[in-house]
Specification:
The complex is a heterodimer of chains A (about 120) and B (about 220). With about 120 residues, chain A is mostly beta strands. Chain A contains two helices and nine strands, in the order E-H-E-H-E-E-E-E-E-E-E. Chain A is globular and about 45 Å long. The chains are: A mainly beta (about 120), B alpha/beta (about 220).
Chain lengths: ~120, ~220
Protein backbone atom coordinates (compact mmCIF):
# COMPACT_ATOMS: atom_id res chain seq x y z
CA UNK A 1 0.00 0.00 0.00
CA UNK A 2 1.06 3.61 -0.40
CA UNK A 3 -0.10 6.98 0.85
CA UNK A 4 -3.51 7.83 -0.54
CA UNK A 5 -3.62 9.69 -3.84
CA UNK A 6 -6.96 11.39 -3.37
CA UNK A 7 -7.80 11.84 -7.04
CA UNK A 8 -6.84 8.26 -7.92
CA UNK A 9 -9.07 6.95 -5.13
CA UNK A 10 -11.93 9.27 -6.08
CA UNK A 11 -11.69 8.03 -9.66
CA UNK A 12 -11.92 4.43 -8.49
CA UNK A 13 -14.87 5.21 -6.21
CA UNK A 14 -16.63 6.77 -9.19
CA UNK A 15 -15.82 3.70 -11.28
CA UNK A 16 -17.62 1.39 -8.82
CA UNK A 17 -20.71 3.61 -8.46
CA UNK A 18 -24.06 2.23 -9.64
CA UNK A 19 -22.68 -1.30 -9.88
CA UNK A 20 -23.22 -4.29 -7.64
CA UNK A 21 -20.05 -4.39 -5.56
CA UNK A 22 -18.76 -6.21 -2.50
CA UNK A 23 -17.53 -4.34 0.54
CA UNK A 24 -15.10 -5.29 3.27
CA UNK A 25 -15.39 -2.80 6.13
CA UNK A 26 -13.51 -3.21 9.36
CA UNK A 27 -12.23 -1.47 12.41
CA UNK A 28 -10.28 -3.00 15.27
CA UNK A 29 -7.99 -2.26 18.16
CA UNK A 30 -6.97 -5.88 18.44
CA UNK A 31 -7.94 -8.80 20.63
CA UNK A 32 -5.28 -7.97 23.22
CA UNK A 33 -6.13 -4.32 24.00
CA UNK A 34 -7.45 -4.97 27.49
CA UNK A 35 -4.87 -7.70 28.11
CA UNK A 36 -1.99 -5.24 27.77
CA UNK A 37 -3.89 -2.33 29.34
CA UNK A 38 -6.60 -3.10 31.88
CA UNK A 39 -8.25 0.25 31.32
CA UNK A 40 -8.58 -0.25 27.56
CA UNK A 41 -11.59 -1.69 25.78
CA UNK A 42 -11.59 -4.34 23.11
CA UNK A 43 -13.54 -2.88 20.23
CA UNK A 44 -13.87 -4.13 16.69
CA UNK A 45 -16.34 -4.76 13.91
CA UNK A 46 -16.12 -6.14 10.44
CA UNK A 47 -18.43 -7.00 7.61
CA UNK A 48 -17.05 -9.05 4.74
CA UNK A 49 -18.75 -9.28 1.39
CA UNK A 50 -21.67 -6.97 2.00
CA UNK A 51 -23.21 -6.61 -1.45
CA UNK A 52 -24.17 -3.02 -2.13
CA UNK A 53 -24.87 -0.68 -5.00
CA UNK A 54 -24.02 2.92 -4.18
CA UNK A 55 -25.24 6.03 -5.98
CA UNK A 56 -22.08 7.99 -5.43
CA UNK A 57 -19.18 8.22 -3.05
CA UNK A 58 -16.57 10.71 -1.93
CA UNK A 59 -13.17 10.74 -0.27
CA UNK A 60 -12.55 13.76 1.96
CA UNK A 61 -9.15 14.83 3.29
CA UNK A 62 -8.83 15.58 6.99
CA UNK A 63 -5.18 16.58 6.79
CA UNK A 64 -3.15 13.41 7.22
CA UNK A 65 -5.92 10.90 6.75
CA UNK A 66 -9.22 10.64 4.96
CA UNK A 67 -12.89 9.86 5.39
CA UNK A 68 -14.90 7.98 2.81
CA UNK A 69 -18.67 7.90 2.46
CA UNK A 70 -20.70 5.87 -0.03
CA UNK A 71 -24.37 6.77 -0.45
CA UNK A 72 -26.70 3.81 -0.79
CA UNK A 73 -30.37 3.97 -1.84
CA UNK A 74 -31.34 3.32 1.78
CA UNK A 75 -28.25 4.09 3.84
CA UNK A 76 -24.52 4.73 3.97
CA UNK A 77 -21.14 3.09 4.12
CA UNK A 78 -18.62 5.17 6.10
CA UNK A 79 -15.00 4.90 7.18
CA UNK A 80 -12.72 7.36 8.94
CA UNK A 81 -8.96 7.27 9.34
CA UNK A 82 -7.87 5.66 6.09
CA UNK A 83 -4.46 6.86 4.94
CA UNK A 84 -3.08 4.14 2.63
CA UNK A 85 -4.41 2.73 -0.61
CA UNK A 86 -3.80 0.13 -3.24
CA UNK A 87 -5.57 -0.87 -6.43
CA UNK A 88 -4.59 -4.51 -6.52
CA UNK A 89 -4.13 -6.94 -9.41
CA UNK A 90 -7.82 -7.90 -9.17
CA UNK A 91 -8.74 -4.25 -9.69
CA UNK A 92 -10.04 -3.92 -6.13
CA UNK A 93 -9.78 -0.68 -4.19
CA UNK A 94 -8.12 -1.32 -0.82
CA UNK A 95 -8.06 1.48 1.75
CA UNK A 96 -6.61 1.21 5.24
CA UNK A 97 -5.39 3.25 8.19
CA UNK A 98 -2.51 2.03 10.38
CA UNK A 99 -1.11 3.12 13.72
CA UNK A 100 2.56 4.06 14.35
CA UNK A 101 3.54 0.42 14.62
CA UNK A 102 1.91 -0.45 11.31
CA UNK A 103 -1.11 -2.14 12.86
CA UNK A 104 -4.37 -1.91 10.99
CA UNK A 105 -7.00 0.28 12.66
CA UNK A 106 -9.57 0.63 9.88
CA UNK A 107 -10.10 -0.81 6.40
CA UNK A 108 -12.56 -0.22 3.60
CA UNK A 109 -12.30 -2.32 0.44
CA UNK A 110 -14.47 -2.40 -2.68
CA UNK A 111 -14.52 -5.18 -5.26
CA UNK A 112 -16.69 -6.30 -8.15
CA UNK A 113 -16.04 -9.94 -7.17
CA UNK A 114 -16.57 -11.36 -3.67
CA UNK A 115 -13.56 -11.28 -1.35
CA UNK A 116 -12.16 -14.63 -0.27
CA UNK A 117 -14.13 -16.06 2.60
CA UNK A 118 -12.80 -19.58 3.10
CA UNK A 119 -9.33 -20.08 4.48
CA UNK A 120 -8.26 -22.48 1.75
CA UNK A 121 -10.10 -21.37 -1.34
CA UNK A 122 -7.34 -19.11 -2.58
CA UNK A 123 -4.46 -20.24 -4.77
CA UNK B 1 11.44 -44.33 17.12
CA UNK B 2 9.25 -42.77 19.73
CA UNK B 3 5.72 -44.08 20.08
CA UNK B 4 4.72 -40.66 21.33
CA UNK B 5 3.19 -38.06 19.06
CA UNK B 6 2.62 -34.51 20.23
CA UNK B 7 -0.18 -32.49 18.63
CA UNK B 8 -0.07 -28.75 19.14
CA UNK B 9 -3.50 -27.26 18.46
CA UNK B 10 -3.76 -23.46 18.31
CA UNK B 11 -5.72 -21.13 16.03
CA UNK B 12 -3.07 -18.82 14.56
CA UNK B 13 0.26 -19.02 12.75
CA UNK B 14 2.66 -17.74 15.51
CA UNK B 15 0.76 -19.10 18.56
CA UNK B 16 3.05 -22.13 18.39
CA UNK B 17 6.19 -20.01 18.42
CA UNK B 18 5.29 -17.58 21.19
CA UNK B 19 3.64 -20.05 23.51
CA UNK B 20 5.31 -23.41 23.12
CA UNK B 21 8.28 -23.44 20.76
CA UNK B 22 10.70 -24.14 23.61
CA UNK B 23 8.69 -27.14 24.72
CA UNK B 24 8.30 -28.24 21.10
CA UNK B 25 12.10 -28.04 20.65
CA UNK B 26 12.62 -30.09 23.78
CA UNK B 27 10.35 -32.84 22.42
CA UNK B 28 12.04 -32.74 19.03
CA UNK B 29 15.46 -33.02 20.70
CA UNK B 30 14.17 -36.20 22.33
CA UNK B 31 13.07 -37.53 18.94
CA UNK B 32 9.35 -37.14 19.57
CA UNK B 33 7.34 -36.20 16.46
CA UNK B 34 5.35 -32.97 16.75
CA UNK B 35 2.55 -31.82 14.45
CA UNK B 36 0.96 -28.40 14.58
CA UNK B 37 -2.75 -28.29 13.75
CA UNK B 38 -3.21 -24.63 12.94
CA UNK B 39 -6.86 -23.54 13.07
CA UNK B 40 -6.77 -20.51 10.78
CA UNK B 41 -4.38 -18.51 8.63
CA UNK B 42 -4.62 -15.46 10.86
CA UNK B 43 -6.24 -13.62 7.94
CA UNK B 44 -7.69 -10.96 10.24
CA UNK B 45 -4.51 -10.09 12.10
CA UNK B 46 -3.95 -6.41 12.64
CA UNK B 47 -0.17 -6.48 12.33
CA UNK B 48 0.74 -5.89 8.69
CA UNK B 49 4.51 -5.78 9.16
CA UNK B 50 6.44 -2.75 10.31
CA UNK B 51 6.99 -0.99 7.97
CA UNK B 52 3.69 -2.21 6.53
CA UNK B 53 4.12 -4.74 3.72
CA UNK B 54 0.86 -6.72 3.85
CA UNK B 55 -2.77 -5.71 3.49
CA UNK B 56 -6.01 -7.38 4.58
CA UNK B 57 -6.20 -9.35 1.32
CA UNK B 58 -2.57 -10.45 1.09
CA UNK B 59 -1.88 -11.06 4.79
CA UNK B 60 -2.72 -14.77 4.69
CA UNK B 61 -0.16 -15.41 1.94
CA UNK B 62 2.61 -14.03 4.18
CA UNK B 63 1.37 -15.82 7.28
CA UNK B 64 1.24 -19.13 5.46
CA UNK B 65 4.86 -18.75 4.37
CA UNK B 66 5.93 -17.54 7.80
CA UNK B 67 4.34 -20.56 9.42
CA UNK B 68 6.13 -22.88 7.01
CA UNK B 69 9.43 -21.20 7.92
CA UNK B 70 8.79 -21.43 11.65
CA UNK B 71 7.87 -25.09 11.22
CA UNK B 72 11.17 -25.64 9.45
CA UNK B 73 13.04 -23.98 12.31
CA UNK B 74 11.22 -26.19 14.79
CA UNK B 75 11.38 -29.32 12.61
CA UNK B 76 7.65 -30.02 12.90
CA UNK B 77 4.82 -30.82 10.51
CA UNK B 78 1.86 -28.51 9.99
CA UNK B 79 -1.73 -29.25 9.10
CA UNK B 80 -4.05 -26.33 8.37
CA UNK B 81 -7.54 -26.88 9.71
CA UNK B 82 -9.09 -24.35 7.33
CA UNK B 83 -11.15 -22.15 9.61
CA UNK B 84 -11.27 -18.41 9.38
CA UNK B 85 -9.53 -16.08 11.82
CA UNK B 86 -11.78 -14.51 14.48
CA UNK B 87 -14.71 -16.81 13.73
CA UNK B 88 -13.96 -20.03 15.63
CA UNK B 89 -16.22 -19.17 18.57
CA UNK B 90 -19.15 -18.87 16.17
CA UNK B 91 -18.69 -22.31 14.61
CA UNK B 92 -20.86 -25.08 16.09
CA UNK B 93 -18.81 -26.52 18.96
CA UNK B 94 -19.91 -30.11 18.24
CA UNK B 95 -18.74 -29.94 14.63
CA UNK B 96 -15.40 -28.44 15.62
CA UNK B 97 -14.96 -31.12 18.27
CA UNK B 98 -15.81 -33.92 15.83
CA UNK B 99 -13.31 -32.58 13.31
CA UNK B 100 -10.60 -32.40 15.98
CA UNK B 101 -11.41 -35.82 17.37
CA UNK B 102 -10.97 -37.34 13.93
CA UNK B 103 -7.57 -35.63 13.49
CA UNK B 104 -6.42 -36.57 17.01
CA UNK B 105 -7.21 -40.23 16.37
CA UNK B 106 -5.69 -40.13 12.88
CA UNK B 107 -2.37 -38.95 14.33
CA UNK B 108 -2.56 -41.27 17.30
CA UNK B 109 -1.72 -38.30 19.51
CA UNK B 110 -0.36 -39.13 22.96
CA UNK B 111 -0.19 -35.55 24.20
CA UNK B 112 -2.04 -32.46 23.01
CA UNK B 113 -0.94 -28.93 23.73
CA UNK B 114 -3.67 -26.31 23.39
CA UNK B 115 -4.96 -23.14 25.07
CA UNK B 116 -6.67 -23.20 28.43
CA UNK B 117 -10.28 -22.31 27.56
CA UNK B 118 -11.42 -19.25 29.48
CA UNK B 119 -7.85 -18.23 30.30
CA UNK B 120 -6.42 -17.63 26.85
CA UNK B 121 -7.36 -13.96 26.15
CA UNK B 122 -8.11 -14.25 22.42
CA UNK B 123 -11.61 -15.58 21.59
CA UNK B 124 -10.15 -17.97 19.00
CA UNK B 125 -7.77 -19.38 21.65
CA UNK B 126 -10.62 -19.98 24.07
CA UNK B 127 -12.90 -21.47 21.41
CA UNK B 128 -10.36 -23.90 19.97
CA UNK B 129 -9.15 -24.91 23.44
CA UNK B 130 -12.74 -25.67 24.43
CA UNK B 131 -13.24 -27.69 21.26
CA UNK B 132 -10.10 -29.73 21.99
CA UNK B 133 -11.38 -30.52 25.50
CA UNK B 134 -14.72 -31.55 24.02
CA UNK B 135 -13.01 -33.65 21.34
CA UNK B 136 -11.01 -35.55 23.95
CA UNK B 137 -14.17 -36.12 26.00
CA UNK B 138 -15.64 -37.80 22.91
CA UNK B 139 -12.78 -40.32 22.88
CA UNK B 140 -13.32 -43.34 25.07
CA UNK B 141 -11.50 -43.26 28.41
CA UNK B 142 -8.26 -45.20 28.24
CA UNK B 143 -7.61 -44.09 24.67
CA UNK B 144 -7.48 -40.40 25.46
CA UNK B 145 -4.29 -38.43 25.00
CA UNK B 146 -3.05 -36.18 27.77
CA UNK B 147 -4.04 -32.55 27.32
CA UNK B 148 -1.70 -29.76 28.39
CA UNK B 149 -3.34 -26.36 28.46
CA UNK B 150 -1.55 -23.05 28.05
CA UNK B 151 -3.04 -20.12 30.02
CA UNK B 152 -2.32 -16.52 29.08
CA UNK B 153 -4.55 -14.22 31.16
CA UNK B 154 -2.61 -11.96 33.52
CA UNK B 155 -4.26 -13.37 36.64
CA UNK B 156 -4.50 -17.04 35.71
CA UNK B 157 -2.20 -18.27 38.47
CA UNK B 158 -4.39 -16.58 41.10
CA UNK B 159 -7.35 -18.60 39.89
CA UNK B 160 -5.78 -21.82 38.67
CA UNK B 161 -2.88 -22.15 41.08
CA UNK B 162 0.55 -23.46 40.15
CA UNK B 163 0.81 -25.01 36.69
CA UNK B 164 1.40 -28.77 36.45
CA UNK B 165 4.30 -28.52 34.03
CA UNK B 166 6.94 -25.79 34.00
CA UNK B 167 9.74 -25.87 31.45
CA UNK B 168 12.77 -23.64 31.60
CA UNK B 169 13.43 -23.44 27.87
CA UNK B 170 16.69 -21.48 28.12
CA UNK B 171 18.56 -24.33 26.31
CA UNK B 172 16.22 -23.87 23.34
CA UNK B 173 16.03 -20.08 23.45
CA UNK B 174 17.85 -19.53 20.16
CA UNK B 175 15.50 -21.90 18.41
CA UNK B 176 12.49 -20.17 19.95
CA UNK B 177 13.79 -16.75 18.95
CA UNK B 178 14.31 -17.98 15.38
CA UNK B 179 10.78 -19.42 15.26
CA UNK B 180 9.31 -16.16 16.55
CA UNK B 181 11.41 -14.18 14.07
CA UNK B 182 10.03 -16.28 11.21
CA UNK B 183 6.65 -14.62 11.76
CA UNK B 184 7.95 -11.40 10.29
CA UNK B 185 4.58 -9.73 9.67
CA UNK B 186 3.55 -10.21 13.29
CA UNK B 187 6.52 -9.84 15.55
CA UNK B 188 7.90 -6.35 15.28
CA UNK B 189 6.77 -5.44 18.78
CA UNK B 190 8.03 -8.69 20.24
CA UNK B 191 11.42 -8.43 18.54
CA UNK B 192 11.83 -4.90 19.91
CA UNK B 193 11.03 -6.28 23.30
CA UNK B 194 13.58 -9.07 22.95
CA UNK B 195 16.28 -6.80 21.56
CA UNK B 196 15.76 -3.77 23.77
CA UNK B 197 14.98 -5.32 27.12
CA UNK B 198 17.32 -6.69 29.70
CA UNK B 199 17.40 -10.43 29.31
CA UNK B 200 16.32 -10.59 32.93
CA UNK B 201 13.19 -8.47 32.42
CA UNK B 202 9.82 -9.90 33.35
CA UNK B 203 8.57 -10.24 29.76
CA UNK B 204 11.67 -12.06 28.59
CA UNK B 205 11.60 -14.32 31.60
CA UNK B 206 8.00 -15.12 30.74
CA UNK B 207 9.01 -16.16 27.22
CA UNK B 208 11.73 -18.40 28.65
CA UNK B 209 9.36 -20.24 30.95
CA UNK B 210 6.66 -22.30 29.29
CA UNK B 211 4.03 -23.74 31.54
CA UNK B 212 0.93 -25.86 31.22
CA UNK B 213 -2.01 -27.18 33.19
CA UNK B 214 -3.05 -30.79 32.78
CA UNK B 215 -6.67 -31.43 31.86
CA UNK B 216 -8.48 -33.72 34.26
CA UNK B 217 -11.69 -35.29 33.01
CA UNK B 218 -14.18 -36.70 35.47
CA UNK B 219 -15.55 -39.39 33.17
Amino acid sequence: MEAIDQSAVQEKINHFANKDVYIHLETTNGAYASHFDETAYNVGAFIRNAKVNYQHGKIVSTGGSYRVGLKLDIGWVYAEGVSDFEIDEKDRLLLAGHDREGRLMVALEISEEPFTHEAEEHE
Amino acid sequence: MSNKHILVIFPHPDDESFGTSGTISKFRAEGVPVTYLCGTLGEMGRNMGNPVFANRETLYTYRKKELAEAAKELDIDVELLGYRDKTLEFEPLDELAQHLKERILAYGATTIITHYPGYAVHPDHDALGAAVVKAVELIEPGKRPEVWMHAITNNHEDELGEPDFVFDIEPYWERKEAAIRAHLSQVDGMMNLIENHEQTSKQIQRLKREQFYRLTLSS
